[in-house]
Amino acid sequence: MDRNSIIGFVLLGALLIGYFVFNQKQQVEAVKEKQRQDSIALANKPKEELAPVATLPSGQVDSAKLNTEYGVFLPASTGTEQDVVLENEVAKFTFSNKGGTPKEVELKLFKTFDKKPLYLKKGSFNRIGLKIPVNDKDLNTSDLYFTGGQVTKGDNSQTITYRLNTLDPNKYIEYVYTLSTGSYMMNFDVRVVGMQDIIKGNLALQWNAQFDKQEQDMQNERMNNQVHYRTGAHEHDYFTLSRKSELKLDEKVQWVSFKQQFFNVTFIAKNNNFDSAYISTKIPESANIVGQSLTTLTLPYNHSGNYSFPMEVYYGPNHYKTLKSYDIDLESIIPLGSGIFFFVKYINKWIIIPVFNFLSGFIHNYGIIIILLTIFIRLLIAPFTYQSYVSAAKMKVLKPELDELRVKLKDDQQAFGMEQMKLYRSAGVNPLGGCLPALLQLPILVAMYSFFPSSIELRQESFLWAADLSTYDSILHLGFNIPFYGNHVSLFTILMTVSSLFLAFYNRGMTDQSNPVMKFMPYVFPVMLLGIFNRLAAALTFYYFLSNVISILLQWVIQKFIINHDKIHAQIQENKKKPKQKSKWAEKLEEMQKRQAEIQKTQQQQRKK
């Protein structure tokens, strides 16, 4: 490996380290924060938590107090809670007539890391309700009792309807839910009938959501706990809960998604967008709660006698193909490339994911799929790899002549650089021949860094000693934390590091041993990555280890059986005999080197005087 190849790998390494450090910053747990949204949380607590129903000393209900608090919704102020189940092959929704919304949502095809049922909605914090002004105060429909709740079955769907009655039978609010066969997406229609004289201002939907711990690594799970949204202008953006506490969107919003590492809950406006959205998030001081979100979605209420606002609510996995099928850019919540490497998402979308899906269509062992995917990628970049090895072979042939120049010119680096360029030009060698192929491989490396940790297909899939390819493989839990490393030992990460060091040792004869940076960087870089990769997905570290092994084998085969060093040497000698036409860039570079040499010579003469 020549000096320019090393420079290329150093640049590649620097970019990778920068990218890894940038991502690692997002993995640091947020500093424990105080309860900043007490007033909002208080306003959205169930009524029984806010204040008990006013009663007289005799135990009778204070009707005057109830009329003041509930107004026309007095008939819905009391009742008996009853549950109804709506389910298909993939999800189970448990509805309650109190609030008229799902109080539990279970994904039937998934389990938590400790093999318990996986719920995307469970517990009193999770609430959905309309905020309606009653006597100068907001009444939340999640505290009221709805009627109905009967399930109607169609050919490929099930429907459940809840009605919130008032003192006037011609004035009511209705929720209609429809769940299709095999779908994670549920239709949710809000119908407001005859309420134009009661709801005179905005009509807002309050959505409180909480994600409980589902994965093994809480730190990584919180790093992936984000709120995504898409505006009416089809612009997508997001923020991570550990970095931002609230956001006010005074514009049309098509959907808002509360995303965890592998699952999400998303509210989607179907025909008309939400008028605005206010999102407040926090990370509670709890080892079992990943994050909480308090979201207010303003509906485009037109104050008509019969108002309807159709929505869709997605409760399901962050599966790329599934999310893409809805054609609303919902798949953009999956982190396939961002920041300075945003372009690698197209490599994932157009190359990696289609190949991965093709292989998984007939192979069910994901370890085997990763092996075949690695081989495919190596074949894809084979031309760049071969060009890099050919360049290294040429540099190896020229190394004795470069060593002679170095001895002859000693410490005169300026003169050495000029003579080195002349030698390369006369030999017909491109000094960037080893650098560019290495840099061209960088997008693939970064694409894999984004793809594997985001692939729900790998979740809880085992291979060899790794029980779950979507998280780190641990062969030893240390019981204590080592700074910049962690509290466990990942064998795939160690194998990746050892294979990288072996690759560097194998190429030691092709590096510039006189330059300490060039000499030791190939060994330092893998060790620097050891701590970063120790907590990343086993699929990723297995891929990098396998890629290193293939590189070692390919290099040995190419150098042993394909590249003929004697032939290359003879070709270089023939190139030296041919007249060389300088390019304008080479002429300018040579002229700059000459000027620099003259300046240095003049400065030396002045020092002697």
UniProtKB/TrEMBL annotation:
Membrane topology of this protein: Multi-pass membrane protein
Pfam families named among the record's database cross-references: 60KD_IMP, YidC_periplas
GO MF term list: membrane insertase activity
Residue stretches spanning the membrane: 6-22, 333-353, 365-386, 428-452, 484-505, 517-536
Ranges where the Membrane insertase YidC N-terminal domain occurs: 84-344
Sorted UniProt keywords: Cell membrane, Chaperone, Membrane, Protein transport, Transmembrane, Transmembrane helix, Transport
Biased composition, class Basic and acidic residues, residue ranges: 584-598
Subcellular compartments: Cell inner membrane; Cell membrane
Polar residues bias (residue ranges): 599-609
Gene3D superfamilies documented for this protein: 2.70.98.90
Domain spans labelled Membrane insertase YidC/Oxa/ALB C-terminal: 366-560
A GO term from the CC aspect: plasma membrane
Cross-referenced InterPro entries: Membr_insert_YidC, Membr_insert_YidC_N, YidC/ALB3/OXA1/COX18, YidC/Oxa/ALB_C, YidC_ALB_C, YidC_periplasmic_sf
Source organism superkingdom: Bacteria
Span list, region Disordered: 574-609
GO BP, one annotated term: protein transport
Key word Ribosomal protein present: no
Family: Belongs to the OXA1/ALB3/YidC family. Type 1 subfamily.
Protein's job: Required for the insertion and/or proper folding and/or complex formation of integral membrane proteins into the membrane. Involved in integration of membrane proteins that insert both dependently and independently of the Sec translocase complex, as well as at least some lipoproteins. Aids folding of multispanning membrane proteins.
Oligomer and partners: Interacts with the Sec translocase complex via SecD. Specifically interacts with transmembrane segments of nascent integral membrane proteins during membrane integration.
Protein name: Membrane protein insertase YidC
The organism of origin for this protein: Chitinophaga caeni
Chain's gene name: yidC
